[in-house]
Amino acid sequence: MLVVALCNQKGGVGKTTTAVNLARAAHLRGISTLIGDLDPQANTTSTLLGQALDTSAESVADVLSARSDATPSDVIVKTGWQHVQVLPSGGDALADVGTELVAMGPGREHRLREALSPLVGAYELVLLDCPPALDLLTINALTAAQEAVIVTTAALWSSDGIARLLATLDAVQKYSNASLHPAGVIVNGLERTRRQRHWHEELLANSPVAVWGPPVPKLTWIAEAAEAGVGLDEWNTPAASNLLAVYDQYLSNILEGTSHR
Ligand SMILES: Nc1ncnc2c1ncn2[C@@H]1O[C@H](COP(=O)(O)OP(=O)(O)OP(=O)(O)O)[C@@H](O)[C@H]1O
Ligand SMILES: [Mg+2]
């Protein structure tokens, strides 16, 4: 079971869009996949379930909380995609658990890792959609993961943000998960402007971690498809098929990268 965290402490860069499209690419390959939604905004959960999780339903918040005995198997739900299941976010409850974790003390970074360990064998791939913060929810995802994929836009401060994130990855590697590896950087939402080209080139030249190509352009239909939980293969345009091939390539990078280590 390969666990991959999609992360960036910056909001709105495309973590959720990337998670959904990678899950679709994995589904199309018949890879049994679990998406873990670690964001109190619960966008992945709503997208893949077609609606927000029922407020009375148990969620990843219960799995992480010391106040509940819930295991992932109790809360995982099926999606309309046969090979993809969701460990759903509990919205406000997950935000509360983020606070609970702060007070929890030793072992608090390992709660997700421990909760996922009985699932080894049940899924080939676990994609963890992180919240836009370097908080204990993200640290739990990074402690559970073997691979971290950084999703970013090409903008002023993007390199600084990546440097900060990499420092956090180093700390997690040192203190809570020696097998964590920064897999690569996905550039999302690239516009055809001189400024964006400049910041993209700057990322390519200076990123200490491989920047995977090609970048994902900024196009309205990409948001529409991902937000509606419609696979790019179901979007029925040549451009969407081409973009699906890009996500499929990213998926290969993730899977093949790990086979070399
Ligand atoms: N390539 C793209 N082209 C156009 N719109 C995009 C693209 N990628 C993402 N978006 C849109 O931008 C917004 C932010 O994307 P997304 O939710 O994937 O980012 P995020 O990093 O998960 O955000 P958050 O940090 O808030 O969880 C969404 O409305 C999404 O539909
Ligand atoms: Mg998100």
Secondary structure: elements and pairs:
Blueprint lengths: L1 E6 L7 H14 L4 E5 L5 H7 L10 H5 L7 H4 L1 E2 L5 E4 L4 H13 L6 H6 L8 E5 L6 H9 L2 E6 L5 H18 L5 E10 L3 H13 L4 E7 L2 H9 L9 H22 L2
Parallel strand pairs: 1-5, 1-6, 2-4, 2-5, 6-7, 7-8
Antiparallel strand pairs: 3-4
Helix pairs in contact: 1-2, 1-10, 1-11
The protein binds adenosine-5'-triphosphate and magnesium ion (MG).
Structural class: alpha/beta
Low-confidence stretches: none
CATH class: Alpha Beta
CATH superfamily: P-loop containing nucleotide triphosphate hydrolases
Largest sheet: 8 strands, mixed
**Spatial strand order of the main sheet:** 3-4-2-5-1-6-7-8
Q: Kindly state the percentage of residues in helix.
A: 40-55%
General form? globular
Quaternary organization: single chain
Number of helices: 11
CATH-derived architecture? 3-Layer(aba) Sandwich
Number of strands: 8
Whole-number mean pLDDT:
96
The string of secondary-structure elements, in order, is EHEHHHEEHHEHEHEHEHH
